Structures are given as structure tokens and as C-alpha cells.
Amino acid sequence: MYQNLLTKIKKRDIVMRLVIALAASMLIVYFYPHPESTHYNYEEGRPWNYAKLIAPFDIPIHPDSNTIRAARDSLTAKFVPVYQLNQLLGDTVVRELPKSPGNNYRDRVARQLRNIYAIGVVDAETREQIEKGSLPKVRILDKNVLSEMSTSGFVSPRDIYARFDSTVTEPGLRQYISAAKLAEILRPNIVYDEAESRRHFDYDYLTLTADRGVIQQGQTIIDKGAIVSPQDFTNLMTYEAMLKDSVTKDSKSDWLMLLGQFVYVVMLLVILCVYVYIYCPAIYTNIKSFLFIISVVTFFFLMAVALNTFIPSGIYIVPMTIVPILVLVFFDGRTALFVSTVTTMICAGITSFPLEFIFLQISAAAAAVYSLKQLRQRSELLRTACFVAGAYLLSYIALELLMNGTFEGFSVRMIIYLGVNSLLTSMAYVLMFVVERLFGFVSVVTLVELADVNTPLLRRLSDECPGTFQHSMAVSNLASEAAKRIGANEQLVRAGALYHDVGKLVNPAFFTENQHGVNPHDALTPAQSARIVINHVNDGLRLADKAGLPSVIRNFITEHHGKGKAKYFYITECKAHPDDVVDPAPFTYPGPMPQSRETTVLMMADAVEAASRSLKEHTPEAIRALVNKIIDGQIADGLYNESAIEFKDVPLIKDVFVKRLMTIYHSRVTYPDAAGVRHKDSQ
User: Fold this and answer.
1) DSSP structural state of residue 142
2) Residue 257: predicted pLDDT
3) Do 409 and 520 contact (CB within 8 A), yes or no?
């Protein structure tokens, strides 16, 4: 029955992982470039990486974007605007002049105005353009006849008034001009016609940007390896647009292409799952770890799609090296490179140059993993960013020389993109904390911060339980050295050991290392004493939860005694009732048993360090006998039965404990008494 239950659980786990991988595959394929959107990936100024493309139908040759932009700029600079001419306005203005009985002032002013209006009067804005030299001529529309006219003689109403004011000296005539209020009656007879100007501009623009011909069916659109020129780029865009709208397009091939994309993505994710299953069983068996691996691949693919959609070649801005950094921080370098390679292969399907993208990203990922190895400080990410930038630059230079054989094809935009990419690598530090909160992981950086004795909980332990704090420090050093020897997580053991006894903060005086002559257990029964001592595990959990310690640290609190007994009080109770069978339950820790190599090492170190303080002689023989007795006793009690530790690790751990304890308790040289020694200064 138990075997059947295990089989059901195993099948359920497999199905769950398959569902996660399948969901990720469907999401990725959904955002892949579909057949109706594009058939080719290409970029202006780069080689055409496909076979020679033959036109399946006639394709009009539209002018390229550079030609269109140049035509618009040229037309804007040379365009002559259209103005309307009102030939009768001069006579209208003259009729509005007041009469001047007894003199000929009105006739004299009228004669000059007719002469001026015959040349042309424009508004102040037009006159300002003429003075700046930006309007040397205009086109005059008069009775549907369009003719060009020089603007050299055009004046504004203000110019007319100023001319009269500066040339007329006769007092009577000046008074007449003033009374005539020329400023109110003078109006331009040549007026800008915006509608006609726009119509003629659009007509000239369409003439300049008309199609340049036709690529006839069977002609070459572009040859393999040819550099995509601006005109080639426009022709390819036209071809794809026409192909998309073609009613003769074979829908069956679209489904086959979609199927190919799905198989491609599924195969890559299956390869990743197989790798994790064979080489990283700890990741495979932990559903959160497995979900993290699949999620990081999917997330960075979606980021690549988003940037590539809104920014030309924006995929090169995506900091893909964060993928191996995150995996390295929480797992190992080999897995980091493998996950990064799978992510790169998936993203390559949406790039214009897949081989170039793959080479750049794999080079950068290798540089990131090599330079980082294990993240302990934030400053190490800056060094990694420099390594990544160097790898990108060298790889890009190699690719350009390989494909083009010249330095002339270097793209400044690509260099900028890769530089921004390298700088964004430092964002891995922020994402680390997001991953820790979402998946419950703990990075080495967090462990280093937790191991800082100035954290509030450890500071409180140092102040209120100095004996326990010194014991925890000693156990931390002892256990971390043993963990390093057997290849376990040294930093995790160091941090976990510092917190394993924080529960003693609730009743510090009931623990030997904090006592000073008075033992409160003398007034209690063994069962009562055992309950208080055993409760330091649950008390520690409550303090850990309040301090927000991660679960991997809380495991050290719950597992460092496993389901062992508080032997001192249990034996005392047995001796006090020799004729009775003592129930061991009140004297047994709640557990669970140590599950990991790290918590097992802590259990060993905790017991050995505490027992070593009671040795009367700290000779190598006595220390080795003590270590063997403690650890062999725990093995005999079955405390390691659920642990991942191996038998070959036990002798190595014992050897480390013996050497460290011998160093701690080594004998010091007795200094001779200096009494009676005469110094040179006293002579």
C-alpha cells in the first residue's frame, strides 16, 4: 500500500511538471512570429542570410525611406507657396480715402497707392519671410492662372505708412495722411492661399515619390549574402505585405510552420527537463525550484519579445546574462550555463540573425559565470558587468570580421545596445530579492547578511544570552569548516548555526552556558526541566517568524536536535524511578530529524562543541574519543536516518572536528616570572 502511494505521488509530480513545461511552451509559441506576420528576419545594412529570393508575382518598386525623406526635405526647401491676387483692392482702398476740398492731397496719395498696389502688398508675416530671404518668389493664382512672381518689391501696410511718414514733409499733406487713418484702410492684395499651397505641395510630393518601376515575376528580389540596402529593405517589406494579402497563400504551410515552432520549443524545454532530472535531482524534486527554472526562461523570452516589438533589434538590450547569474546564485554554474543556453536558443527564433545572437549570448553567459562563480557582495556584479561587456565587444568584432571582412560594417547602435545590456546586468541584484520572496530561495548574499552579528536578533542574543551566543559562534565555525570539507553549503551552515539556539532567549538562565552559580533546575522536577529546555525549539521558531528568517534557517532551529532526547533529564528521571518504566515522550524533542547535509552537520557540531567544554583534559586522544562517542551515538540512535548525508562524509567531518577542537584547546606556553631580572634602564 505504501509503495502504491509513492507511485501515485511520483506520477502526480511528473504530470505537474509536464503541465508546467507544456504551459510555458504554449505561451512561448503564442508570441513567436507567426507565418502571417513575417517570413524572414532581416535588417537594413546587414547581409541577407537566406537563399536568393525570387519574386513570385509582380512587385512595385516603392521609393525607400531615405529617398522619401530626401524628397520631402528638398520639396520643403524649394516649394514656392501659392498666393491669391486681388487686383481691384487698390481701387477699393483709394475710394476709402477722405476728400480734400480746395487741394489735390487725395489725388496725390491715391496715385502713390495705386502704384504700390500694382507691385504688391502682403501681410506682415509674409513681409518678414521676404526680409529673411526665405521667400524670394511666390506663385500668384489669378483667375485660375498660376504664375511665379518675384517678391523683391512687395511691401506690407506698415511699410506703406512708414514710407509716407518718412518722405512727406509738406505740413498740409501730413495732416491729410494723418486724418485719412491709413493704418485702418490699408490691406494686403496678395494673400497666402493655404488650401492651394497644400494641394500643390501634395501633388509635387506624389510626383517625386512615385513608384520607380516593377520587379517582375521571376526576377531576383535579393541575392544570398547581399547587404540589405534601403531600397532592398523597402522591396522586401512590400513583398511581405503583398504576400500577406495574397488570396493564393497556402494556409496548410502556415499550420506546418506553427507546428514546427511548437516542436522546436517543446524539444528545448524537454532537453532542459531531462538535464534537470539527471544532473540536478534536487531541482527536479523541488516543485518551486523546477517552476523557477521554467519561469525564468519564459520571463526573459517575453521580455525579449516586448523590446523587439517596440525597438528595432531591441532584443539585444535584454540583459540575458541575468539568467545564468540568477541560476548560479541559487544553484550551480553548470546548470546556469545550460539554462542560459536553452533560453538563448528559444529567443533566437525571434531575432533577425539567430547565429549571431546565439554566439553573443553564449559568450556573455560564459563570461558572467566565470567572473562571478559565487555572489557574495554587490560589488561583484559590477565586475561581472565589465566581463560581460568585454565578451560582447570581442564577440561582435569577431562576427563582423567573419561575415563582412571589414570594419566598415560596425553598427554604433549595436555597440550602444550591448553596452546598455551590460549595465542592466547589475539589475540581477534586485531580481534576486524578488525571486527569494516569490520562491522562498536564499542567496549567498542574503546568507552573508544574516550571518552579520549586528542583525537585531543576533545582537539581542549577544546581549541577553552571552554564553549561548559564544556557543553559537563556536558551533558556526566548527560546522562551516566541516561543511566545506564535504562540499556542503558552507555559508548556509554558518548562518543557520548562529540562529539555531535563539529560542534560549525566552529562558536564558535555564541553560548551562548562561548560568553563574545558581541553577534554577534544582527547584524543578526532571520532566519540568526537560519541557523548558525542549521548548527552546518552538520558542526559536516563534522568534524566527517574527524576525522574518527564511525557511532554510528555520530548519536549523527545528532539526538541530531532531527527535533526540534531553538525555540528562531523562536519565535523571530513570534513576529517580528505578522500578518504573519512564515514558520518553516528555523528554523527546519535537523534530523533525535532520533532512539535509547542512542541518546534520550542525547537529554533530552542536553536540560535540557542548560536550567538549566538559572535558577535563583536551588531549588529542581525549578529543578524538569524544568526537567518536558523540557522533557514533547519534548514528546508533538513528538521528541521521532521514538525512541526505553519506557514510563517506562522516570520517571527514570527524577529522575536521578533532583538528578544530585541538586548535581551540591547544596548550599555551607558560611564561617565566620576570621577578629579579635587571633591565638595562635600571643600571
Assistant:
1) E
2) 80
3) no
